[in-house]
Amino acid sequence: MRFENEITNKVAQSGIIEINLEDFFPQNEKVLYDLKSNLYEELVLKEKDFREFVKNNNWKIYEGKSVALYCSADAIVPTWAYMLLTSALEQFAKKIVFGDLKTLENILWMESLSKINPENFRDARVVIKGCSDKISIPECAYVEITRLLKPVAKSIMYGEPCSTVPVFKRKESSGDN
Fold it and tell me: Where in the sequence is the domain holding 165, given as residue range(s)?
């Protein structure tokens, strides 16, 4: 029995699938390793001293963490130094990248979103949730989810199911060629 003034949830009945990118947030700890502390007078990397440091440092403190390697000093750091650090960290760190924390986070977002099976959204009307309650979601995540879903989704919107901004809508073929 329906009442005249009954409230219906049209959003729930619309078949719209909402994706909250917060659900894909890389959870492990992210740390920055600044090579500056390994430079002599913040200018020069002495190979012998650096190799000794890498050999004797306790790299276990990075266990399970994602590490961004970079140098904040205005110095020329040989490429092999980053390779040597990576070699030492590899057995402990979950992820190692060259760059700052933003670079690391962007890479982790891309990896996390790559686990989505776009086929699960074939012919779907999708809303990518626009507001995050807990974290700042980088633009690269919105770009990547759009790139992944555009080939299969019927439409992609941004915002909340009750108030969206259209991003993409597949044109229906008319069959009159």
Answer: 10-26+117-169
- Total tally of structural domains belonging to the chain: 2
Query: What is the predicted pLDDT for the residue at 12?
Result: 47
Cα separation, 109 vs 128, whole angstroms: 15
Q: Which residues pair with 34 in a beta bridge?
A: 70
- 125 lies in the same domain as 158: yes
Determine contact, residues 159/165, Cβ cutoff 8 Å: yes
Domain assignment of residue 122, yes or no: yes
pTM over 0.90: no
Residues 6+ apart with CB under 8 A from 125: 14, 15, 16, 17, 153, 154, 155, 157
Q: Is the pLDDT of residue 13 over 60?
A: no
